[in-house]
Write a structure and sequence with these properties.
single chain, alpha+beta, Glutaredoxin, Glutathione S-transferase Yfyf (Class Pi), Chain A, domain 2, four-stranded mixed sheet, 6% strand, globular
């Protein structure tokens, strides 16, 4: 049976980290909410979230169905998929280290989100612009260099090309997505940070050239960055 990925069809969001792993591995999967036939759409995703008979429901998308197993939270999904797709290194030490790196990337993604929604998700960006400007200022000068600097240190200690071992893992793919999103949301600040983190920049660029990833990025399956997702480009926040 193919994997079933459930996520909002109009944004990359947190589901993109899972999509990249599935695409790189050439896995058989269905992006359920993006189907336009009677078996697809957002309805089945929402039904599963609200099913009262499910004793272990996911809290929110993304979640993945693998046979009878339903897994929520992007990092947990990748922890499950990584060894099955050959994207989690070798052995338990690599598997847990890859998961740890993914959780750190998830922390960075949360901070990206909070630059345009510093007061809460129940308010529009336009309702919290002064606070967003202040939050983004600290994120640009302090947090982007700190996160990318950390991954630069990990890459340097591991030979420069990969975060875990010598082979590609889902942590490398997720770091690509983090950098790609930052380049969209904060192009000026991210370009400046990448000058001090050449290994991170090379990993991003080389990942984009991998055959399956390049084909995915050029396809309609890749939802463009937009101002409804996590990575949003508001020029005033990057000035």
């Amino acid at each position: 049976m193919p994997y079933e990925l459930h996520y909002w069809p109009m944004i990359q969001g947190r589901g993109e980290f899972v999509r990249l792993a599935l695409e790189e591995a050439g896995a058989d999967y269905i992006d359920v909410a993006r189907r336009d036939d009677d078996a697809g759409g957002i309805g089945p995703m929402l039904d599963r979230l609200s099913d009262p008979a499910n004793p272990r429901p996911p809290f929110a998308p993304p979640f993945l169905r693998d046979g009878d197993l339903v897994i929520g939270q992007g990092a947990a999904i990748l922890l499950h998929l990584g060894p099955r797709l050959g994207l989690a290194g070798t052995g338990d030490r690599d598997r847990i280290w890859t998961h740890q790196l993914q959780l750190t990337i998830a922390d960075a993604v949360d901070e990206v989100h909070d630059t345009h929604h510093p007061l809460g998700v129940d308010l529009y960006y336009e309702d919290q612009k002064p606070e967003a400007l202040r939050r983004a200022a600290g994120f640009k000068t302090g947090r982007i260099p700190k996160f990318l600097g950390y991954f630069e240190r990990v890459l340097t200690a591991n030979g420069g090309a990969r975060l875990v071992g010598m082979e590609l893992t889902y942590a490398d793919l997720s770091l690509f997505q983090l950098v790609d999103g930052l380049l969209y949301a904060f192009p000026k600040a991210t370009a400046a940070a990448l000058q001090a983190t050449p290994h991170v920049e090379r990993l991003h660029d080389s990942t984009a050239r991998r055959p399956r990833i390049a084909a995915y990025l050029a396809s309609e399956r890749r939802v463009p960055f937009n101002e409804d997702g996590i990575f949003r480009h508001y020029p005033e926040l990057d000035s």
